[in-house]
Amino acid sequence: MHILGAPDLAVKLGAAINLTCVVSQSPDQLQFIFWYRNERMINYDMNERGKIVMSKWSQKPDTITSNLHIFSSKLSDSGNYTCMPSGARPTSIYVHVLEGNRGSSPIQV
Q: What is the spatial distance between Cα 31 and Cα 36, in angstroms, rounded to a whole number?
């Protein structure tokens, strides 16, 4: 199990945050995948801020993905994001939301 792009992801203020948690060889009893930011659960019903979608990966039938989408990042969205599926160990990524200037070079962490 892993989050694509881990261990760090940097995005510019106002850009979308898209996190994908990949659970390979997922057990049949997988009932849920929760997302946390700094140990606080993220609500599945994010309304206009974003959404969480869980689906089977078409390329590998025994793989499930959970996608966390935040449409427009705020500085307060920076933090440690954890994907926690039932019956498996959690995995994390640190998201850095940075203020960028026009014409600046790509963000590196």
A: 17
94: β partners: 8, 80
Per DSSP, the three-state class of 88 is: coil
Please report the sign of the dihedral spanned by the C-alpha atoms of residue 31, residue 25, residue 89, residue 33. Answer: negative
Please say if the pLDDT value at position 9 is more than 90. Answer: yes
pTM of the model: 0.83
Q: Are strands 64-70 and 91-98 parallel, antiparallel or unpaired?
A: unpaired
Q: Rounded to whole angstroms, what are the CA distances from 100 to 12, 14, 52, 75, 105?
A: 6, 10, 27, 11, 9
Q: Which residues contact 91 (CB under 8 A, 6 or more apart)?
A: 1, 2, 3, 6, 21, 82, 83
